[in-house]
Each structure stands twice: as structure tokens, then as C-alpha cells.
Amino acid sequence: NAGVIQTPRHKVTGKGQEATLWCEPISGHSAVFWYRQTIVQGLEFLTYFRNQAPIDDSGMPKERFSAQMPNQSHSTLKIQSTQPQDSAVYLCASSPGGANERLFFGHGTKLSVL
Amino acid sequence: GEKVEQHESTLSVREGDSAVINCTYTDTASSYFPWYKQEAGKGLHFVIDIRSNVDRKQSQRLIVLLDKKAKRFSLHITATQPEDSAIYFCAASMWTDKVVFGTGTRLQVSP
């Protein structure tokens, strides 16, 4: 079992460009979570899916961020018109059932917006 | 919504001593309290958890205590070793809600 796979590991974009981050959860896990980690804000919840359905996107900046889970084997987080303040490590996690079980985290995607 | 406060931002102990990290939460409906460890340059890794139907859980050198009345839970690491040095995050969740994390405690274990 390869664990949660996130690609790319590093992404550099120019201000105003689009960034798409990919996450492959552990096979058989029904819940997928996205978090953003920065030194200043710590671990911020963005969104989560259970059985591919969006359950809670209360942490998503509404205008430029979107997340999808088109099938059980991957989820994407898209950031349009990236801004320097979007620079962070974006972490994806999956769990067998939901928020009441341990999360398995990927290594993260470090996004740098110049 | 739930808020989790992690009281110690840094903690330094000598090898062999115990380390204690304290967290408080706000929502009485929270029922699951996991702890995660993050080593330098790596993702988060689960270490131990406790559910609201018990008040103590131990796994080898790790002990988690839960005080539901005070809405407080803590991680005790006994007989610390240099490899315990990392950032530790507490978290709280309900079945129907997201997992909310504390701000992290950087633990340094010196020989």
C-alpha cells in the first residue's frame, strides 16, 4: 500500500496563474480531506468528501478555490488566479470511514506563488 | 464550530524525562481526539487517539488522558527519546464534522 499520494511535490506558479493539485487516497478509503499548512495559520481545513460527495467546504476561499472528486481514486484541488498568500503546503488525507477515524496524510504539495 | 487550543507552542525535555502536551476544545459534541506527529519536512503521521467513551488510553510510551468535564485532553510521552523530537498536533472531531487541529507543539528532546 503506497499510502496517500499527492502530486506534484512542489509547484511554482506566477501570480494570476492556475494551479491544480492532485491526491490519490488509499484504496478503499471513503473520506478525503484537504488542509493547508502555513507557519502563520497552522493547519487550516479546506474541504472534505465522503463517498465522493462534498460534505463540508466551509474552509474554502469561495472565489478562487474549488475541489472535486470525480471518482474514488482521486481528488483535485484547483486554485485559480493564484496569489502570493496562497503559498503553503497543501495536505491531502484519507480515512476509512470519515472524520471520526484516524487520517492518513500524504506528503503534501508545496505551492509557491511568485 | 469546534475550536482546539494547544497550550504549549514549544517544549524542551531531557532524554528519559516525560513530556506533556495539553489541548482544550470547545464543542461538547466532539467525540474523537487523535494526535499526530510531524517530523521535519514530512507529512503528518498518526500516533494515538482516544474516544469520548474512555478517559485514558495507553500505547507503549504514549498515554492520552481525556477530561470531558473540563473539555481538556493531553498527550503524555514517557521515557522520551531523541526520535520523539517533532511537532505534535492534537485534534478533535465529530462523526458528521471535519477534523479541527490545534496549532502544534514543537517538542525537543535533548540527550
Write structural notes for this entry.
The complex is a heterodimer of chains A (114) and B (111). Chain A has strands spanning 5-7, 10-13, 19-24, 31-38, 42-50, 53-56, 65-71, 74-79, 88-95, 104-105, 109-113. Chain A has 114 residues and is an all-beta fold. In chain A, the strands form 2 sheets. In chain A, strands 2, 4, 5, 6, 9, 10 and 11 form a 7-stranded mixed β-sheet that branches. In chain A, strands 1-3-8-7 form a 4-stranded antiparallel β-sheet, with no helix packed on it. In chain A, a hairpin with an 8-residue loop joins strand 9 and strand 10 (104-105). With 111 residues, chain B is an all-beta fold. Chain B has strands spanning 4-6, 10-14, 19-25, 32-38, 44-51, 56-59, 62-67, 72-77, 86-92, 100-101, 105-110. In chain B, strands 2, 4, 5, 9, 10 and 11 form a 6-stranded mixed β-sheet that branches. The relative contact order of chain B is 0.34. The mean pLDDT of chain B is 95. At the A-B interface, strand 5 and strand 10 of A face strand 4, strand 5 and strand 10 of B.
Give a brief outline of the structure.
The complex is a heterodimer of chains A (114) and B (111). By secondary structure, chain A is an all-beta fold.
Q: Unreliable stretches of chain B, pLDDT < 50, 5 or more residues?
A: none
Give the class of chain B from helix and strand content and strand pairing. mainly beta
Order of helices and strands of chain B: EEEEEEEEEEE
Number of helices of chain B: 0
Shape of chain B: globular
Q: End-to-end distance of chain B, in Å?
A: 41 Å
Average pLDDT number of chain B: 95
Keywords for this structure?
heterodimer, A: 114 residues, seven-stranded mixed β-sheet, globular, B: 111 residues, mainly beta, six-stranded mixed β-sheet, 0% helix, 55% strand
Spell out the blueprint of helices and strands.
The complex is a heterodimer of chains A (114) and B (111).
Chain A: E1 5-7, E2 10-13, E3 19-24, E4 31-38, E5 42-50, E6 53-56, E7 65-71, E8 74-79, E9 88-95, E10 104-105, E11 109-113
Chain B: E1 4-6, E2 10-14, E3 19-25, E4 32-38, E5 44-51, E6 56-59, E7 62-67, E8 72-77, E9 86-92, E10 100-101, E11 105-110
